[in-house]
Amino acid sequence: MSEATLDGRGRLTLPKEVRERYGEHYRIVQLHDGIKLVPVEDDPLDALRSEFADVEKTAEELRQEGRKAALDEAGR
């Protein structure tokens, strides 16, 4: 874990190793107990294609499985 401090103008500089690993674009998510930086890919669609390249089910099949799992978890 590393630390970063805001400068006089309110800017936050991330350590080099963080920028090299996660990139330079982030979304800031406000949580009830702090914030979270979520890396944003330069091309989000390419990132999604890469992430799901080995998934052989259709979007509809995945949606149905998710719905069934949610209903099962809810006790229906």
From TrEMBL:
Q: Does the keyword Cytoplasm apply?
A: no
Concerning InterPro entries, the annotation shows:
SpoVT-AbrB_dom, SpoVT-AbrB_sf
Annotated SpoVT-AbrB domain ranges read 4-45
Ordered alphabetically, the record's keywords are: DNA-binding
DNA-binding among the record's keywords? yes
One GO MF term, please? DNA binding
Name of this protein: AbrB/MazE/SpoVT family DNA-binding domain-containing protein
